[in-house]
Each structure stands twice: as C-alpha cells, then as structure tokens.
Amino acid sequence: MQNRKYSYLIYFIAAVIVVTLAIQIYWNYKNYQASRQQLINEIQTSLDFAIDNYYIDLAEKNTIGLSYEGNILENKGLDTITKRIDISSQGFKGLDSLKPQDIHDIKIFKGVQALNMDTLASELRVSLDERRDVVKSFLNPRNTDSLKGKFALANRIIISISTDSIEIPEMNNYIQEQLNQKNLSVDYGYRFLNKKGLKQYFNLSQIDTTNLKAEAKSGYLPNKSTFTLFYDNIEQEVWKRNLLGILLSALLMTAVIACLLFLLKIINRQKQLAEVKNDLISNITHEFKTPIATISVALEGIKNFNRENDPVKTGNYVNTSTAQLDKLTMMVEKLLETATLDGEELALNKEEINLNEILENLVQKHQTLAPEKSIRFTALRENNWILGDAFHLDNALNNLLDNAVKYGGDTIEVTLNSRNGSYSILVSDSGTSLSKAEAKQIFEKFYRVPKGNTHDVKGFGIGLYYTQKIIEKHGGSIDVSVTSQTTFKIDLPNA
Fold first, then answer.
1. Quick check: is 298 in a domain?
2. Per-residue pLDDT tens digits for 18-43
C-alpha cells in the first residue's frame, strides 16, 4: 500500500513538471509571436514615417503657393516674383530676398502650407527636366494668352516641381533614422516603382525577398507608385527583445522543477530511512535475542538443574551469562558511540603510530578467524608513521577488513602506499555482490545492503559509517569503487 502511494506521488510530481514545462514553453512561444508581430508593425510604421518625412521635406523645397487678391492678370507683383525666382534641383531659391513692398497683395506659401491651401486654387506641376523659363512663362501671363481663362478666377496658385524618382542616399537616411528611433537593427533593401514603370532598387541582392516585406502606405507617396521594403534578421532582434523574459521564465521553471525534485528526493530519503529504521529494529532484535536467550537458559539451569550446588557447573553458567552480558554491553556501547561521531564530543588522542604494524596485526587476526580466505598485505616501506589515534584507527581499519571478510570474495589484498607525506590504504576483494547504487549508500548510518528478511550476517550497519567518520576526523577521506572487484581506498595525511 505504501509503495503504491509512493508511486502515485512520483507520477503526480512528474505530471506537474511536464505541465509546468508545457505552460512555460507555450507562454514563451506566444510571447515570441507577439514580439515578432510588434516588430513587423514597428518596421511598417518606420517605413511610412520615413516616406512621409521624405516627401514632406521634398515639398518644402519643391512647392510654393501664391495667394492674391483680384485678377492674376492685373497683378504686377508677379513680375517681381518671376525675376527673383530660381528653380534648380534643390527647389525654389531667391524667394527669401523678396521685399514685402515689392509684391502687392500677394502671399507666398512654401512646402506643406502650400499643399494645404484649402480654398479655390489652380495647380501647375513641373517636372525636374523642365526649365525655369517654363514656370516664368506661366507666371508672366502677358506671354501666355491661353492661361487667362484658366486662372482668371483663381485666387490661389500652387506651383510644384514633381519628381518621378527618389534620391536613394536621402531615402536611406530617412529610413535608418526611423529604425534607429525604435532601436531596430535589421538588414533591409527596397524597390521603388513609379507610375511610368521606372524601377529603382537598393540592396536587394543581399536580402531574401521571399521572406518579409512591408508595402508603404504613406499618403504622400506619388500617385500609382509603390515602395516595397524587404528585410530579414528579424529573429535575432526578437530574441534580443525577449531575452530577459525567457531567462526569467527559465529561472522560474528551473526553480519549480528543482523544488519538486528536491521534494521527491526528501520523500525518497524518508522512505529509505523508514526502511533502515525497520531493518535496524529487526537487526537489534536478532542481535539482542541470542545473548538474552542464552542468559535466560543459564539462569534457568542454575535454578532448576543445579540443586547439588555444583561449583563447576555454577561457574560455567555464570561465565556464560557474563560473556553474553559483555556482548550486550558492547553492542549498546557501539550504538551510543555512533551518536557521538557527528558532533565534536569524540576527542582523539593522537600519537605517533606505525600503520604497518596496525595493518599487519589486523590481517593476521582476520586470516586466523577466516582461514578459508586468502588475505595478503603489501607495503612499499617497512615503517610508515602517522600522527593519529591508535584505538580509533585500529577499530576503523578492523571494520573495513571485517566487511571484506563477511561480504567480499575469497581473495583480499591490503596495500599501503606513501607519497609526499600522505598515505593511501587500499582494501580490495574479489567480491562482486555490491552494486554501484548500493556503493553510494554504504557509508550511511545504519545502512545495510538489502538481503530480504535474512540475517545470515549479524550487524547494525554502523561499521563503515564509523570508519568514514574516524577517517574524516583524521583529515582523510574514504571511497569505494566497484569494477571487476570491490576496492575501498583510504587517503590519510601525515599530520
């Protein structure tokens, strides 16, 4: 039942992670699409503003309006204007030098003001190819009788130098100015087509004309002409604009997933601790059950089967009980001692000790206890002295060898190496029952390699934990590797 709940929880956390990823990816995608469309709109607006400004400035130079009272044919101020007017590729010149008293009842408007004259007006458009004499001939009605009927009733006249082409360098400046105002960095080219079919191009050979384009919608664009802007490099600009949002989204997504994984890790850890606790209780029950049962049998023997008061038999019962009590005391002390390893309560009594002597004694001891095993010790030097606590180091190394004898293979090799004042102890055995996943947990408190409900090897799972803590308190480290054999490696500084 508990395993089923744990599985459901894992599925739920996995589903939350997937949904979170999907939502964040969808949100970023929609945000990217919106930013892309906004960028396209900004380019369209920039193009229209550039066209507007180009033709407005062109009108400032190439358009004048004349407002007068009475009959144009009888107004002598026009002669003064025609003498001063100068038409060139730069527009109308010479008008600024006119004196008010020289032009009676005539007002002069330039550029957009002239185009916006909102009363009755007659208009003459002159191309750049026509000369100044054409305009002067128009402004001097004495030379053109055919104009009398057309302009006799007009009190406004607009004169505009029309153009059927664009100045590419000037147009580039206007477009680039608008793009810079909106902080847009895109590669572009364009095509201008007038009503006569004349085409002008800029930078189209470097642009993919099948990708993105914007058609100018400016009202100032000449009649029946088109202006098309082609551009690319938009994705880089969109990503640049959305970088902060994407980073924040990724950070949020990472934080949520990390929290969920951390929660899953804690739950898994709690599950393992519960298993370890149950296993520890079971081990303690089995470990304590044997000596308690033995003591009970001994006391029962003294009570019921020693009526003759045989001193020898009584002594045997007492000795057996004492040995089992000592065993119980030792197990309790081990459990209590384990509680002091994590803090600073355990004080080490360091002195000069010979590692060779400690390891040789331990190898000889375990070889005697397990004659079916082959245990060898190898050292490059006869004596290797280290500053350490002899009692705790002996117990730590004894736990390591005891672990190899209990769980390892038939061949055990102990190697002591020294280098630059530090020592390396390798304990290798030919056993392969330890998996890599179990090797990561083998130094944890009360952890024992799962073997179901069997207890063929006694213990509480604190031997390797004790060894690791003692080695660390000596400034060293211990780890285990599982390949074709199992190898424990201890590194100890000589300090």
1. yes
2. 888 888 888 888 888 898 898 999 99
